[in-house]
Amino acid sequence: MDFRALPSGDYTLANVTVPACLLGQEGDLVRTELSIVDGRIGPPQGVAVDMGGALVLPCFTDMHTHLDKGHIWGRAPNPDGTFMGALTTVAADRAANWSAEDVRRRMDFSLRCAFAHGTRAVRTHLDSLPPQDGITWPVFRELREDWAGRIALQGVCLVGCDAMDPEGAFRDTADIVAASGGVLGMVTYPVADLEARLEGFFRLAAERGLAADFHVDETMDPESETLRAIAKTVIETGFEAAVTVGHLCSLSTQTEARALDTLDLVAKAGLNIVSLPMCNLYLQDRQAGRTPRGRGITLVQEARARGINVCFASDNTRDPFYAYGDMDMIEVMREATRIGHLDHGETGWVQSFGANPARACGFDTQDLTEGAPADLVICRARSWTEFFARPQADRIVLRDGRAIDRTLPDYAELDTLMRTA
């Protein structure tokens, strides 16, 4: 149940707590009021509801997800929790089970979760090695149309850099992505001809007017430095579209001087960084019988200090890469704050879960100033410590100023899919 009922029509949320940066002000949290007029934040008007200091945030943008992998754990659990265990398990499940119906039902399930939790825009990576690209991308286009007006949906192809031949089959995948209004994506790891592959990748993207999004250095091996290669290639080629790099785990194991020098290159290249702390904490530095020493999270504070656009996102949901998660950006905020020590320092980190990822993806950004859409998440918490202490299960989610039904889909809906393996 939502913690407070709100009236129909226009009204004012009186006595609310808002991050100052979302009002264009300095500082951390401020007490104010927000009026809802014709589905937008408007000028003050008469019907007021005392919210008791409730914290108000804009609805979220989740810019790095894997909707096509989601919720396969019931039939394809990771045997040992490792990265290689995830890769091999997903590959086997994809070959056996990823029909159009299977992918559609699981993707739609995740979108219903995200919507109920207060997300308004999602970028999803889609496994795109043929023939899967011919199965999943049509489903993605159908879902994007089905969800229009509720969740803005954006797709990114996902292939390994050793399988990305710019003169081969990947050209066809790039054409599918372009025809779908998507983003060109790739996983980078050390291969002998990485620079040539990157140049070919960016050439394909530029020819089709596509932005780029990479999985990068998802390992604790300090010798994995494909991030430097991406940044250098962007600088050298003058690639103009937006480029996002995700994970960057190896930065956390490199020497301070080397890691910071790489971040200087990232800043010069104008790359967007997205950190996936929950999945990285789950997979990285996992060895049987040994307590993990490393967190896997990339250097978000050092990146932000260099003016780099830093974002956070959900990543995987109940699949071999991450056994948990529910497409809930408040959970991502809570865990990122704890894992990355985002508290007790710079304010404004809330932007990394909304405006920053929206800007990176080209979605409409949202703040809480007059004229903005009344797409809001309202929590009973009156301060950050209250907000992060509990999961905010009784939050109110407004879309166009009206409270939505936040009932989450039942996992039992997917039981028939779990019996297909």
TrEMBL record:
The molecular function terms of the Gene Ontology recorded here are: cytosine deaminase activity; isoguanine deaminase activity; metal ion binding
GO terms of biological process kind: cytosine catabolic process
Xref: CDD domains: Bact_CD
Key words of the record: Hydrolase, Metal-binding
Against SUPFAM superfamilies, the record matches this protein to: Metallo-dependent hydrolases
User: Superkingdom of the source?
Assistant: Bacteria
Pfam families from the xrefs? Amidohydro_3
The answer to whether UniProt assigns keyword Metal-binding to this entry is: yes
Cite the Amidohydrolase domain residue spans from the record: 192-401
Matching NCBIfam families: PRK07583.1
> Which protein, by its recorded name, is this?
Cytosine deaminase
